[in-house]
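DEPOSITED CHAIN:
***
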Amino acid sequence: AHAVEFTRRFILQAESENAIRRDVLTSLPNRFSFNERLENALVDAKQFDQHFALLLFDLNNFAEVNDRFGRAMADALLVEVAARLRRSTRES
């Protein structure tokens, strides 16, 4: 019984930690996760003389999409963009 309870708590903790690092809508890493990964990449780059690339982009006029077509359509656009990013990149 104790092992089952321990396992259940462990799983809940892991899910909770994952939830704070992922966007609810897109399941992509969120800003919190971005900051962690960037910090790790910077430390690794310095410590192991490694290089890395960082790509930032902006969905121009996204607020207008939200205002003109509504939140449901704006959310659908974000989900589609996330799916395309996921197909085009590695998880790391």
